[in-house]
Design brief:
0% strand; mainly alpha
Length: 185
């Protein structure tokens, strides 16, 4: 039983393992190309510095620099092309693995049951949505207070108890007006 289970799990995980192997191989190739390029770049730069230190004229130094950068550009282009080829190869291998896995999944018997379930669920959702939308001719006017909705019991809240009117506060007295002082003559 355990062996069958492990075998089944390994079979199901094999596409993921294959993708990981393709990625590993691609990364190793890219790393190797980059490390070779960096090593070559450092060696070329050291050689260029030695050559420039021995130069006596500026024209000769410029010519050496132009030659160095053209060689550097060629090497960089070559490495970039090799990297793109490695990435393209990895992409094609992964695409093949994914296509194979998807075709195997669609051939499994439970997938037809799952597709049938999805179709039925979509039809039920469409029917529910259609029933929820009623045509404008069937819409009735909203009931007024005098016309309660049939079959719905309406409870009213008890009226608030009446209170006695509030007593009036006594009127405030106005302070007496001050008399003006007689003017001195």
């Amino acid at each position: 039983m355990y062996e069958d289970l492990m075998k089944d799990v390994q079979e199901k995980m094999q596409p993921a393992i294959d993708v990981a192997e393709v990625n590993k191989k691609a990364l190793e190739t890219l790393f190797s190309l980059q490390s070779e390029y960096v090593t070559d770049f450092v060696d070329s730069s050291v050689a260029q510095l030695k050559a420039l230190s021995e130069v006596k004229e500026a024209k000769e130094a410029v010519e050496l620099q132009v030659k160095f950068f053209k060689e550097l550009e060629g090497k960089m282009t070559s490495v970039a092309e090799k990297e793109m080829a490695a990435l393209t190869e990895a992409k094609e291998e992964i695409s093949g693995i994914v296509e194979k896995s998807l075709s195997e999944i669609s051939e499994m018997p439970y997938m037809s049951d799952f597709n049938k379930f999805l179709t039925e669920a979509a039809e039920a959702a469409t029917a529910t949505a259609t029933a929820a939308v009623t045509p404008a001719a069937e819409v009735k006017a909203a009931p007024t207070k005098a016309e309660p909705t049939p079959g719905v019991k309406v409870e009213t809240a008890p009226a608030p108890a009446k209170r006695a009117p509030a007593k009036k506060a006594p009127a405030k007295r106005k302070p007496a007006a001050k008399k003006a002082a007689p003017a001195a003559e």
